[in-house]
Amino acid sequence: MPKLPEFPFPSDRALRPSPLLGDARSGGAPVRVQLVFGDPAWLVTRYEDARTVLSDPAFGRDHERAGIPADGVARMTPIDPTSGTLLTEDPPDHTRLRRFVYRAFTPRRVEGLRPGTRRIADRLLDAMIGSGAPVDLVEGFGLPLPIQVICDLLGVPVADRDRFTAWTDALLSTSEMTADEVMASVAEMNGYLADLAALRVDHPTGDLIGTLVRERIEGDRLSGDELNNLLRAVLAAGFETTASQIPNFVFLLLDGGDYARLAADPGLVPTAVEELLRYVPLIAQGSLTRFVLEETELGGVRLRPGEQVLVELAAANRDAAVFSGAEALDLARESNPHIAFGHGLHRCLGASLARMELQVALSAMIERLPGLRLAVPADQVPWHTARFVHRPRELPVSW
């Protein structure tokens, strides 16, 4: 039996999808691959196939329903970072649990956070400008902006931000930590969140933690574990996407010369954010594993119950059958049905929040720092190389 291709495929440059993904997409059919952990999986790279897997009930997120043991789940990390959370539930539990937190992320609620987010951005930029160039954009702006926003939303002390980033780094580590070390970090995070929830029992609050605690006490519709897992998913996912994409976007804009164009035409920011979401791969290849629940055909391949499927969002978002000039970054692209936030039932709950934060971040930066530039050559920017989500370790900038 021939050896399966190892996944993720190698890439020759940061934020550039592997050419092998394009080869797989050109082939049309899903291809069989082997990840670092777990059993083999089918890799899906075409846009329409990706949408099918992400929305068709023939594919689920609960590995137990497919008869797959936890250690057999195809993954890049020692443990599944989403294990036990909303992201691994299928209906009806997924529908019930998602409803509890959806109200915090409605477009209307998120839009109400825009002025406060801009104030946070301006304070951070004031501090950066006051300290003088060069500065690390990751530490000075990329991380603290979304952390402060999600902390305000949840009701979590911003002073604990270093603990949040350490816990999230552990969850998303692909090789820097052992499974036992990751589990210890998860246990510490769970204990912290349980303590915050316990405080709301006698001292109710209007933040998201307080709201969920009321649902548990008054409606008896949430178990203690469900409450904790919801909070863990929201806290980690609520800032990780934006915290990573702010420096990713800025690096790409500066490296390619598009930052100056955006600074000269601020009205492009909304379409630029959508195009950057399409163009910049966030996850280090392969989205969350789906499990085949009933026999079905995809791209000419017969998939059977118990098999696993990976959707490669970065490849799907560069499918020339859907996107004209798919390999080019076009900040003014008008038709842009990207699936950077996923699709279907498990589409990212915080998509509206991430989109708003990214718009605010870029708008504030091009207004306050129109002459921003990399403080080191692009090939000297250090990147996380053993992490499920892409982002620079540091992004030195000047102005």
UniProtKB/TrEMBL annotation:
<keyword id="KW-0503">Monooxygenase</keyword>
<dbReference type="Pfam" id="PF00067">
    <property type="entry name" value="p450"/>
</dbReference>
<keyword id="KW-0479">Metal-binding</keyword>
<comment type="similarity">
    <text>Belongs to the cytochrome P450 family.</text>
</comment>
<keyword id="KW-0560">Oxidoreductase</keyword>
<feature type="region of interest" description="Disordered">
    <location>
        <begin position="1"/>
        <end position="24"/>
    </location>
</feature>
<dbReference type="InterPro" id="IPR001128">
    <property type="entry name" value="Cyt_P450"/>
</dbReference>
<dbReference type="InterPro" id="IPR017972">
    <property type="entry name" value="Cyt_P450_CS"/>
</dbReference>
<keyword id="KW-0349">Heme</keyword>
<keyword id="KW-0408">Iron</keyword>
<dbReference type="InterPro" id="IPR036396">
    <property type="entry name" value="Cyt_P450_sf"/>
</dbReference>
<protein>
    <submittedName>
        <fullName>Cytochrome P450</fullName>
    </submittedName>
</protein>
<dbReference type="InterPro" id="IPR002397">
    <property type="entry name" value="Cyt_P450_B"/>
</dbReference>
